[in-house]
Amino acid sequence: MSRVLVAAGLVGLVALSGGCRARPPEATVVAPDSTTLAEMRGAAGGLAGGLVGALTAALARGGPDSAIAFCADSAQVLTARAQREGVTVRRIGTRVRNPANQPDSVERRLLEHLAAERSAGRPLPADTVIVVAGAGGSELRLVRPILIAEGCLACHGDPATMSPGVRQTLAARYPGDQAFGYRLGELRGAVVVAKRIPRTD
Ligand code: HEC
Prior knowledge:
By secondary structure, this protein is of the alpha+beta class. It has helices at residues 34-81, 105-119, 153-156, 164-173, and strands at 3-4, 87-93, 128-134, 137-147, 187-196.
């Protein structure tokens, strides 16, 4: 169970890039030093780029039915591989397909806020960095929104328009699947890069 640090003067959500200035409760946004920020952004871009590239190739090879096998197996592998010393990278969703991608309560509040901003037509920050305190110490988390593009709808859109093969494979592999019914341009989730903050005591 983690809780967000509420530091004096830093309460509220302030976008680090982009024009968003709205304030959801209990999120503390910080501006890490430029080396840390560059490292975290690099890790987020690496995962997002690696997945999109591999997914595009899998779709070209065998269409959505066989690309699901890629998503199911390789996405988790790529996510694990993206781990660097002290840094982990994963994907979360507003409604998830794989329970392993479930956001924690802090991430969920941030996703709900970003989804509301998106629905209201306001621009989202490219990424947001928050501080989260847990039993094992504090960590920085960079949260980068993921939006639904045209190609995503084959597996995350309206089930009525999905190919029967995709529907069957998803139903078999993900009995609790909630990651469908999205519309073009909607917030789908986020890439989260987490980095432990070393203890100073
Ligand atoms: C070929 C089908 C397919 C396509 C196309 C596809 N996805 Fe997925 N997506 C999946 C599957 C399967 C999972 C579950 C992966 C896992 O087990 O981690 C998933 C998981 C995710 C997750 C992690 C959260 C969750 O629900 O478990 C996000 C975020 C995501 N997809 C975004 C996208 C985006 C954005 C696109 C378009 C660029 C896209 N997907 C295209 C099948 C697909």
